[in-house]
Write a structure and sequence with these properties.
This protein is globular. It folds into two domains: 2-249 and 456-480, 3-Layer(aba) Sandwich (Aldehyde Dehydrogenase, Chain A, domain 1); 253-437, Aldehyde Dehydrogenase, Chain A, domain 2 (3-Layer(aba) Sandwich), CATH 3.40.309. The chain has a seven-stranded mixed sheet, with helices on both faces. It has a six-stranded mixed sheet with strand order 10-9-8-11-12-24, sandwiched between helices. It has 14 helices and 25 strands. By secondary structure, the protein is an alpha/beta fold. α9 (263-275) packs across α10 (292-307). β2 and β3 (11-13) form a beta hairpin. It has helices at residues 41-60, 63-79, 81-92, 96-116, 155-166, 181-192, 207-215, 228-240, 263-275, 292-307, 327-342, 397-405, 420-429, 467-471; strands at residues 2-3, 6-8, 11-13, 20-25, 28-37, 124-126, 132-140, 143-147, 170-174, 200-202, 219-225, 244-248, 253-257, 285-291, 346-349, 353-354, 364-365, 368-371, 388-394, 409-410, 412-416, 434-437, 453-454, 457-458, 472-480. The structure holds NADPH dihydro-nicotinamide-adenine-dinucleotide phosphate and 2-oxoglutaric acid. 2-oxoglutaric acid is lined by residues 151-152, 225, 281-283, 442-444. 2-oxoglutaric acid (AKG) is lined by residues 151-152, 225, 281-283, 442-444. The active site is at 248. Keywords: Oxidoreductase. InterPro entries: Ald_DH/histidinol_DH, Ald_DH_C, Ald_DH_CS_CYS, Ald_DH_CS_GLU, Ald_DH_N, Aldehyde_DH_dom.
Length: 481
């Protein structure tokens, strides 16, 4: 068992409160992953002081040299990928292949934003006046607060910190208390790669530390991923003090299956998107909206595949679905399934906690398929964030599209079809930031913009080159020569 610490001004130190919290393996609560500092507003304030002190020199370093630090960090993480992936499975529960994939994603993010150091372009704009030269420059904002959730414990800290750092900002990162270890490993690696003291600070703890970071007057921007309830509070506080804010929150992502689709492939796509990462992804498919003429055939295939999935501790070979993040969350998932059944849905697979033998030491929920779901049921409107797929029927493409759009979220959406016309119409008319054709709604790439519409997201996009927009401000320069 290890005692982990905060990183402030280049020093690993306990919280000023002296308090700690435990992190336990969601597949086996007897496995204590480590203890972490329970930080207060004072710890956050110390981290912001350190970040402010370090930021000017970091911003003055040529951006490609900042990129070299990220490249070195990528190499270090690559060398430790297997160990970090195992730790991720222990702290978050996802299967080892999923954790390895996520570590690989973090390595790619480090390299990608390392390269952006040589591409922090401005523009030259023609003036309407004689011998006036106009250009734009990107400048950093100062200190950035990054608040991250538990479901992608290294990729999300990386995809917020890397574009912030390459742009010349200093960062205070507050990882989720439910999966704090991988963020610590990322910080250790960046320090080892030569990141100057104070440029990245990590303050562990609960919402108390998070809200102190959001409220801190010297933090110029907050990038947040997590629940809609917390995101709304973050936006309110940032709005009042005019800090920049970027929110990534929930989804109620649809997969439309048209009658012309390859049904076996479509069932596999829904299976992947609904049950991968135990359904704990904001991009997970939670609604399969299927053309009525093939709805029964599709459901049968999905149910057969769901029942064949092996649920268990993610470190074991051959496991398809790991545990929910904690007991309360697993209980909430089965309660919402029971409520859907009470409202008239049929439980075609799963619907219960799995507690036999060693599974009883973890928070396991069987992959669940609900049939006969109608668009107004709560299960068709609210995010579950668990391994639950609701199957709805639609008359045709237009009806399916109307159902798909009739929720307050708009993050990711898939259509399974062989029709080019329907695929293109879907891309135009679906209310979502991420559109997939014959691909799972989850599983995004780092080099393109990521984000949603409606209640799913607020502010500029994350990832890809667009991420830089959030972390920089444009300066317009006019010069008479
Ligand atoms: N879109 C997504 O990717 C995610 C969505 N969710 C949704 O949210 C639900 C709850 O998950 P949960 O982890 O509790 O999500 P939260 O929104 O509560 O947590 C996200 C992050 O915000 C921090 N935080 C909590 N309260 C505040 C606050 N008032 N001000 C600033 N920061 C705060 C959390 O700290 P701490 O962890 O210590 O509470 C964590 O680091 C899930 O079941 C799911 O529906 C969750 C994770 C990711
Ligand atoms: O599906 C993915 O790859 C990304 C999901 C995500 O960003 C999230 O759940 O927070």
């Amino acid at each position: 068992m290890s005692a982990y610490q905060n990183l402030i001004a280049g020093q690993w130190a306990p919280s000023a409160t002296g308090r700690t919290f435990e992190n336990r393996n969601p597949a086996d609560v007897d496995d204590l992953v480590g203890t972490f500092p329970e930080s207060s507003a004072d710890d956050v304030a110390a981290a912001v002081v350190a970040a402010r002190a370090a930021q000017p020199a970091w911003a003055a370093m040529p951006a490609p040299k900042r990129g070299d630090v990220l490249y070195r960090a990528a190499n270090l993480l690559e060398a430790r990928a297997d160990a970090v992936a195992r730790e991720m499975t222990r702290e978050e529960g996802k299967t080892l292949p999923e954790a390895k994939g996520e570590v690989g994603r973090a390595i790619n993010i480090l390299r990608y934003y390392g390269g952006e150091g040589a591409r922090l372009y401005g523009r030259v704009i023609p003036s309407e006046r004689d011998r006036v030269f106009m250009h734009t420059l990107r400048t950093p904002l100062g200190v950035i607060g990054a608040i991250t959730p538990w479901n992608f414990p290294i990729a999300i800290p990386a995809w917020k910190s890397c574009p912030a750092l390459i742009s010349g900002n200093a960062v205070v990162l507050k990882p989720s208390e439910l999966a704090p270890l991988c963020a610590t490993r990322l910080a250790e690696i960046l320090v080892e790669a030569g990141l100057p003291a104070g440029v990245l600070n990590v303050v562990h703890g609960s919402g108390e530390a998070g809200s102190a970071l959001v409220a801190h007057e010297q933090v110029r921007a907050i990038s947040f991923t997590g629940s809609e309830a917390t995101g709304s509070k973050v936006a309110d506080v940032c709005g009042k003090r005019r800090a920049r804010v970027q929110l990534e929150m929930g989804g109620k992502n649809p997969t439309i299956v048209l009658a012309d689709a390859d049904l076996d492939e479509a069932a596999g796509i829904v299976l992947n998107a609904a049950f991968g990462s135990t359904g704990q992804r904001c991009t997970a498919t939670s609604r399969a909206i299927v053309e009525r003429s093939v709805a029964d055939a599709f459901s049968e295939k999905l149910v057969t595949k769901a029942k064949a999935m092996k649920v268990g501790p993610g470190l074991e070979a051959g496991i398809d679905v790991g545990p929910s993040i904690n007991a309360a969350h697993a209980d909430r998932v089965v309660t919402e399934v029971a409520a859907a059944a009470g409202a008239g849905a049929q439980v075609l697979a799963g619907g219960t906690r799995l507690t036999d033998g060693a599974l009883g030491r973890g928070h396991f929920v069987a992959p669940t398929v609900l049939g006969g779901v109608t668009p107004t049921m709560t299960i068709a409107q609210e995010e579950v964030f668990g391994p639950v797929a609701a199957v709805l029927s639609a008359d045709d493409f237009e009806h399916a599209l109307a159902i798909a759009n009739d929720v307050r979220f708009g993050l990711s959406a898939t259509i399974c079809t062989r029709s080019l016309s329907h695929a293109l119409q879907f891309a135009q008319r679906i209310e979502a930031g991420l559109v997939m054709v014959n691909l799972p709604s989850a599983g995004v790439e780092y080099q393109v913009a990521f984000g949603g519409s409606k209640a799913s997201s607020l502010g500029p996009r994350e990832q890809g080159p667009e991420a830089i927009d959030f972390y920089t401000t444009l300066k317009t320069v006019y010069m008479k020569y």
